[in-house]
Amino acid sequence: MAVELNELRDQIDAVDKQILDLLAQRLALVEKVGEVKSEHGLPIYAPDREAAMLASRREEAEKKGVPPQLIEDILRRTMRESYASEKDSGFKCLNPELRSVVIVGGNGQLGGLFGRMFKLSGYQVKVLGSQDWDHADEILADAGLVVVTVPIHLTQGVIEKLANLPQDCILCDLTSIKSKPLQAMMAVHQGPVVGLHPMFGPDVPSLAKQVIVYCDGRGQEQYEWLLKQFSIWGASLCHIDAAEHDHGMTLIQALRHFTSFAYGLHLSRENPSIDKLLQLSSPIYRLELAMVGRLFGQDPNLYGDIILSSEENIEMIKRFHQCFGEALTILDGKDKQAFVENFNKVSDWFGDYSQQFMHESQNLLKQANDSIHRA
Q: Residue ranges of the Chorismate mutase domain (predicted)?
């Protein structure tokens, strides 16, 4: 049996080496694709091409008796690597006549990411850091685009220092709230203004499929090229009113971060063994625990600023606290019928999204389970 098993394993190893050779060929071809896209100003992410290619490969896999989801998983992981490598070819510069891009707060992680992207697109990039304000007039004198990316509690004060920008300079910010910064920029600068919110962190390998929210300020025809530049980087653009954006962020960011904070605080006081929790965890709980733990591996000031950035956030969290209390009352009364009734109401509210989220979460959980190594 051992001899037969070793022979089969040797054959598997040989096939794996062929797969490696084919992957190397594919990545080399992707590099050439990146060069062509860079030359012609094409986005690195082409959703129609990706969808058609995946559908074709799934169909071919099924004919060969290969699970379609297997080839899709392999290709999606390969494409993620491809998007990251395509950016090394650089990007077409859509506004070569633009004067310098000044990133206020460019020494930070997010500012650094955008600085690299602008440099890869051929723009001249300058950084205005916290120690550079004595030379700010000199740095800003020839600015064609100023990007403000500083902590939320400093944003308005920094914007107020930008009163002497060139009239045609585009002023924008990357803050996770939009109404107040947008109002401040409109008040201090009479030229084109746009509010931006990248819905990702600075550690993304590429901007392919990442969302950048934009809120109109003034002079859209003058900053339209900037939005197209983001698209070439692979980002998906989401246009929204600033007030509507901020209301959405109370749920997407403030409430979500607060509940993670509260859960982490509770865990630390209960003081269980994390190793034991992981041993006992299903993939979904491990993923939930990872998302909570991830919060506490980052800057507390950032998350404190996000949660405390508006009174609306606090009021939303208070309403959640009230809802939590009502749910606890149902449990305290051991009222299973009330639990089921409320459960069904929420299920009706989600509607068809319940099944969509079930499908999406199953794929995430498979990936989470694949990454686990158990002794």
A: 1-90
